[in-house]
Amino acid sequence: MTKSPTVMNHVYGWLLLTPAAILLIAFTHYPAVATLAQSFFSSGTALRPSVFVGIENYQMMIEDDIFWKVVENNAWYAAGTIPASIAIAMLMAVWVNGKLPLRGLVRMSYFTPTILPMIAVANIWLFFYTPSIGLIDQVGGLFGLPDHNWLGNPDTVLWCIVVMTIWKEAGFFMIFYLAALQALPPELEEAARLEGAGRWYYFRRVVFPLLMPTTLFVLINAVINSFKLIDQLFILTKGGPDNASSLLLYYIYEVAFSFFDEAYAATLTVVLLATLAIIAIGQFVILDKRIHYR
Hints:
Layout: H1 5-38, H2 56-62, H3 65-97, H4 103-115, H5 118-129, H6 135-142, H7 157-182, H8 186-194, H9 199-210, H10 212-226, H11 231-236, H12 248-257, H13 262-287
Helix pairs in contact: 1-13, 2-13, 3-7, 3-10, 4-7, 7-10, 10-13, 12-13
């Protein structure tokens, strides 16, 4: 008895999906479930095994002043990096999509920070921010400005990290906007010119709405990136001074690998995953009505 083509297609389909499904379950779903389970237990040692403590870790988190300081830092960091990175990326894409001399070189220049390793980026900006001998203070000294400890001042350290992040991420997001702009039919611009529409009006009424699917994709990536910064903090500030530059993922790293409190780190991770999930769902719900899919 031979099997029908429909059954064989289903079998082939599942066989093709199986490797990706195994990796997804092993490295995404299982760790998330295991982390959630671990957040309800205490941190165990060789002499004292972990025991079920219910929501005690979550209660400790609510009473943790450093946690709330880190959450506030992350909120300011996200508010500073996400809109600026997206806006600059869109402007750069529109700029390099036009008839520009040495356009290929300009595109490469914009994209170069993206391919640099995280540690290299941190060391480059350390050259800018180092007091007295850093490039910023050297240039400021030419105009008689005093030296400033940019990374040692709680009022400026977080915004120094924001500037560095925008510099690194804008070129990455530019690539997606550039691809979207090149996919737009040229007839739209020709029709707008015939109707007498200006460049700004054409961009605002035609181009920008058609870029909304790309904007949603970039926005989700920007939000995720704003919660996963750790490498540059480890090199530049280690969360200081006085936790002024510590972000949520770096705090999880400290709790897990410096304080060896795995249960509390799991609790913080659950909060991070839940926050990202809620934000992503909210973005889809809010922006879905504004997106023009073709």
